[in-house]
Amino acid sequence: VQSAAMANLKSVGRADAIMLDEISEKAFVDNLRVRYDADKVYTYIGEVLISVNPYKDLGIYGLEEMNKYHGAALYQREPHVFAVAESAYSTMRRNEAGCCIIVAGESGAGKTEASKQVMQYIAHVCGKGQQVAEVKQLLLASNPLLEAFGNACTARNDNSSRFGKYMDLVFDYKFEPAGGSIQSYLLEKARVVRHAETDRNFHIFYQLLAGADAATLKSLGLSANTDSYAFLGKGAKPALSDKAGFQEVQDALTAIGFSAELKKTLYDLVAAVLLLGQLEFEPKGEHSAVKDPASAAAVAARLGTDAETLCKALTYRVVAARGEVAYSELNAERAAYSRNALSKALYDELFKYLVSNINKSISTRVSSDTATYVIGVLDIYGFEIFPVNGFEQFCIN
């Protein structure tokens, strides 16, 4: 039925690759190219949606487009991510059972955008009322936060996810949004201290420097010049506005329920990572020391400790054996490794804390004995090879 309906749908090329006259790799790719050239970036293979990233705004994600797909069967309209979201939602309602949308592809394919549009569509079509609106707002507010702290600009993509994400959208017995939960996988911690020359670090660093006012930056021990920070480098300049992104982060933190004090703590930790990158070490015989004590003091202030304790942690290795603790001196090279390890660990724990707080905010708001249904959205990593590939990248690939 679906294939016959798709055959009758007026479209460019074949909207469903099952209807190709010749089933071959060349015929399949040629059909994708014909559709892509006509700004038809979506094509079906049965119930599987193939998406080719257009790298431009086609104006196909507005409310009018959402309304066109609401209530329509998968094969009644042009292929679209909204059609897949509608199919998942209507299937959940019809079968009273959960389902999952898997978003996969290579880096830069558009997985993050597809996941975002699924959430936007489901939020638009399901339920009304104040409580439902509040749940929708919280679910949607999680996106700019996760993107700011977990995404980065790469040579292929201005907004590339640097972590895997699985999100459960939970619905009550009336099939209205009741909450959700997020699981994150394999944050690319190595990006904090090293990334390709064509890439940038995580968005939040640039957003903070571009969007925070002069008084806030001064209180964090920062300046607005991104080029002066060793961990940021001079990577690609994305089309996205960092200043606007910072305001989105501020609004999302407020919507999720972060207090002014907690926001300050988040920015203190982001600043601490940036300032750690400024620490340099000089040899002292076989040992080492921080070149500029004032730089160490700036980091220590952000972490709520003192410069002496921080310097000792970075230039000594603690060895514990048989109930005794000994300190082993580190040379300048190993102290730099120690600094990088601390920077990555700090950022990783910050990200986990952020996800944990988002989950508390969007947790399911129905009693445990009430029937609930779930639509899962899995947005998983794309395969990548960098000039320098650590164990973390091996695990991701």
Describe this structure in words.
The chain starts with a helix and ends with a helix. The protein is built from 14 helices and twelve strands. Helices cover 46% and strands 15% of the residues. A four-stranded mixed beta sheet has the order 3-12-6-7. Strand 10 and strand 11 (324-329) form a beta hairpin. By secondary structure, it is α+β, with helices and mostly antiparallel strands. The model has no long low-confidence stretch (mean pLDDT 89).
Structural class from helices and strands? Answer: alpha+beta
Ends distance: 38 Å
Which outline best applies? globular
Number of helices: 14
What is the count of β-strands?
12
Strand order of the largest sheet: 3-12-6-7
Write a brief structural summary.
The chain is of the alpha+beta class and 397 residues long.
Entry keywords:
397 residues, alpha+beta, two-stranded antiparallel ribbon, 15% strand, globular, four-stranded mixed β-sheet
Write the layout of secondary structure elements.
Elements: H1 2-8, H2 25-37, E1 42-45, E2 48-51, H3 63-69, H4 81-95, E3 99-103, H5 111-125, H6 130-150, E4 151-152, E5 160-161, E6 164-171, E7 177-185, H7 203-211, H8 214-219, H9 242-256, H10 260-276, E8 281-284, E9 287-290, H11 293-303, H12 307-315, E10 316-321, E11 324-329, H13 332-362, E12 373-379, H14 391-396
Parallel strand pairs: 3-12
Antiparallel strand pairs: 1-2, 4-5, 6-7, 6-12, 8-9, 10-11
Helix pairs in contact: 4-5, 5-6, 6-7, 6-9, 6-13, 7-9, 10-11, 10-13, 11-12
